Amino acid sequence: MSTGETHIGEMEIVRYAVNTSFESIDKAVRSLDMEAFVKASTLPAAKDRLIRLLVIFDSIRPLLRALASVPLLPEQWRKALQLLIAVLDELSASTPKPFFKAGKDL
Q1: What is the C-alpha separation between 17 and 73, in angstroms, rounded?
Q2: Are the C-beta atoms of residues 106 and 37 closer than 8 Å to each other?
Q3: Domain-by-domain residue ranges, the chain?
Q4: Is the pLDDT of residue 103 over 60?
């Protein structure tokens, strides 16, 4: 069996999908206050846009990870989702996250 990075990455995704339940994904998605994001009528400053993106990503990350492991999706689509998740993870890890609550300035 290969222990290359690709194989290890695929095994991690399979392990994640097996250990992720509908309830945990639903809880993460419901933790996002979508109404506050929709109600925000002004375009936030560039730094705030990045924080908004990362707050939303943090909430939907379990859903994206689950979708990236669904065999019904073409392999290239799954790889594209995995790449998006990896890039957003890197961005999230390198960006300081001040306390942020959508709509707090309204």
Answers
A1: 14
A2: no
A3: 5-94
A4: no
